[in-house]
Amino acid sequence: MNTAITQAIGTRPVSPCREVRYSPANETFGGTLNERFAPILSAIDSANSSRSIIRNAIDPKLASRAENILQTIEQSILILKNAKRDLRNLPPVHVYNPDDGSILIELASQNVRAGFTIESVPEESGWYFVTMTAHGQIGASENLQDTNLEKIVIYILSLTLAYS
Amino acid sequence: MSYPEKCLRGIINESFLEDGKVTSPLFYFDNKHRRPDGWIELSINWHDDDNAIDSTLKQRRESGELKFKAGVAILPRKGLDEIKMWDSIGGRLAYERQPLSENKYHGNILLNHEVSPRIAKMIAASIALTTSQIIPQYNE
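YS: structure for the whole thing
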């Protein structure tokens, strides 16, 4: 019986109105979703819904670079999740296609904003991390060119979690 | 020149709002608004008196439609002063009054055109973060 419960797969509707599968973390919860899974779905859900904005970008090279960053963000979220980090405060991922033709991928909470800016001139693409005055008013930024993307993304996500 | 504690940035439409916050692109400096003296202008209104917010919300385009359909963001000037002090900014962020015949509250946040896109967008995100309040547009 316990084995059957442990292996039970359930579904739960999540915003925006589509079901995703989850595996209960502990059968003693009686099939209730472990809330530690919810933030991952929220962050990756928002990353998925942001893809339509990337696909609509006029410059396909820009779109390709943005997609690469988005995938790296998703992979990094899963790495943090597997490392048992509490991701409940991780802000959702949003993508913007402003009038200047660039693409912005950003996570924004009340206290912090972390962004990746993708420009038509690759050397001008970069990342930033900014916090409120009450949190040290950090203003950090660097180019994305010649950067280990995986390392910088996971570092920025960790910082975002720490300050959110 | 004296300035009030707050300034106002009009929000053109809902695409500049996300999760109850203003988006960073609301504060992107556009090279189209670069002046001969090298500063790029970002329009604001100064919160000089109790009528400033109402006046901003009622601003209309030549076509007659409301200019700021999604409301107004309130920015503490203190936040701008703190960002101005960053080493990476190096005196290349400023603000000014620029009253117009139809708008006595008008002013600009100014960014030197030499600032790289990467730093400019970090500044935009920082300004967005300082937003203390969003006043929604009136229902018409």
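YS: worth flagging: Chain A is about 35% helix and 25% strand.
IM: good catch. Also Confidence is low (pLDDT under 50) at residues 1-21, 24-41 of chain A.
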